Amino acid sequence: MESVPEEQLGECNIYFLYSNSRSQIQPWIKRLFAYEVEGSEGMIEFDGHYYVFDENFPTKLLMSFSLREREGFKKEGYPDSIFYNVIRKADLLIEVHKREKIECTDRISKITDEDGEEMNVCFFPTDRQKIYFNIKGSLGDKEVEDWFFAED
């Protein structure tokens, strides 16, 4: 099983993409709690959002995963930037088949409306959740690139 040790989760970046011809919602990760892959199956536990109804699963997307070193370094000519060595990187076509919501992590703000009434408002709903997926291939595979760059 491949997993990221808990102490390295802060150095892990996961982004999700759909092909340029698909307008679908993708997960957004605010904080990563777990990343595990065994064979062709995986699970990510995170705090963030993924606005997809359960009946819309399974759904395919490209997951870009990278794990970097904790300590960054400077490069000459880039005084305002910090660079990191990447330890592991993968661009995978995955099919998300299940989501499990663990707890609501919405941040509620109190605002006053025009009548002077105080209201509780959530501008960006989030949940701690797990998504389960199957790995279908990796970028570099012809089938994956055909899927990603396909015109609908």
Taking the alpha carbons of the first and last residues, their distance comes to 36 Å
- Beta fraction: over 45%
What quaternary form is this?
single chain
Largest sheet geometry: 7 strands, antiparallel
Query: Tally of extended strands?
Result: 11
Please give the radius of gyration in angstroms: 19 Å
Low-confidence stretches: none
| Contiguous helical run count | 1
Morphology call? globular
Summarize the structure in words:
- The protein is mostly beta strands and 152 residues long.
- It has one domain.
- It is built from one helix and eleven strands; from the N terminus they run βββββββββββα.
- It has one helix at residues 142-148; strands at 2-3, 12-17, 28-38, 41-49, 59-68, 73-75, 78-83, 86-104, 109-112, 118-121, 127-138.
- A seven-stranded antiparallel beta sheet has the order 1-3-4-11-8-5-2, covered by helices on one side. A two-stranded antiparallel sheet has the order 6-7.
- A hairpin with a 2-residue loop joins strand 3 and strand 4.
- It is globular.
